Amino acid sequence: MGLNVSSAAAKRRARALRRWTMLGGLGALLALAGMYAMLAIPGYLDYTTGQGSGAEISIMKPWVSEALFWAAVSALVACLTLCGVACYLGARTADIQTRRMNSLSRGCGVSFGSPVVFWGATTALPGLCVLAFILACGVNGFGKVFSPDWRIVDRATASDGKEYALISFRFWLAHSRILARPEADTVYRSVYRVLGENDSEQPSWASLVRPADTASNPRKRIYFAPDGLVLATAGDNECVLAFNPHSGACWTDGFIEGLSPFVLLDENTEPYADDVAAIETQVRTAGLDDAGFPHRDVLVAGRTSSNSAVRELSAEWLRVATERAQSSQPRQRRFYP
Predict the structure, then answer these.
(1) How does DSSP classify residue 269?
(2) Which band of pLDDT confidence, cut at 50, 70 and 90, is reported for residue 179?
(3) CB 211 within 8 A of CB 270
(4) pTM, entire model
(5) Which of 75, 110, 239, 333 has its CA 20 to 30 A from that of 201?
(6) ∠329-333-337 over CA atoms, to 5°?
(7) d(Cα 258, Cα 93) in Å, to the nearest integer?
C-alpha cells in the first residue's frame, strides 16, 4: 500500500514538473523568435533593382525595424518571466530539493518530468536566450556596417500633384543623393523610381537663393521653381540635383554647377537674406572654380531679370567676381576669362 502511495506521489510530481517545464520551454521559444526578428532588422531588407535613371529602390518603413527590435526585447522579457514563474511554482509543487539524481529510480531516469529537464528548461535555457540576445545585437550591428543605409530625407508634392523624394544612400565611405518619385506605398514598404543621382565623392552643387517664405523650414530639402524645375538640396542652399519634369532631364554632378542661383525666384519673390549673405561671402572669398560659385553667364543673365533684387545681386556679384578674376592666375579663371 505504501509503495502504491509513493508511486502515485512520484507521478504527480512528474506531471507537475512536466507542466512547468513546458511553460519554461514556451518562454525559450518566444525568446528564440525574438532573436530571429532581431536578425531581420539590418539594411539588407532594402534593395535596388536596376541602375541609374529608371532604377527602383525598395525601402522598408522605419516602423518595421523599430517593431522588430521591440518584438525581440519583449520576447526576451516574456521568456525570463515565464521561466521565472515556472521555476518558482515548479520547485514548490514538485519538492525537487529532495529529488536528486542519485535518488531517482531507474524508471524515472532523465525523462520529460525529471528535475534535470526541469532545471534545464527554467534556468539554463533563459541564460542561453540572454546570450543569444546579446549575440543577435552584435550580428545586427555587424550587418548594418556591411549593409547600405537608405534614408528618406524629404518628400514633397508639386503643384501638378506629382510627388518627389530625396533619398540619401550611404555605404562605408560612399555617399550619394538620389531624386526619385514614389511608385508604390504599402504599410511596410515604399518603392521609388530613380530620376537622377549625384554620387561623386566630392559632389558638385549650385548655390541657391531661396524664397524668404519657404526657407523657414530647416528640414525642407525639395523645392519647386516657378518654371517647374524640381530642385533637391544637400545643405541649406546647396542644390545637388535638378529635374525637369517636362523633358525628363536631370542635372547632376558637373552640370548642376551651371544652374542659376535665382531659379527659385519669380519677379515678385523676396530673396532669403541668409542665402544672399552666404553667397556674398562665397563670391568674395571662395575659389572662382569652386563648387557653388555662380557662373559668369548666369550672373550676366540675372542683370536683365524682372526681379529688381535679382538684378542688383547679379550686378554686384558679377563685378566682384570679375575683379577677382583679373587679379588671379589664368588657371583659376575657367568661368571668368
Answers:
(1) P
(2) very high
(3) yes
(4) 0.69
(5) 333
(6) 115
(7) 82
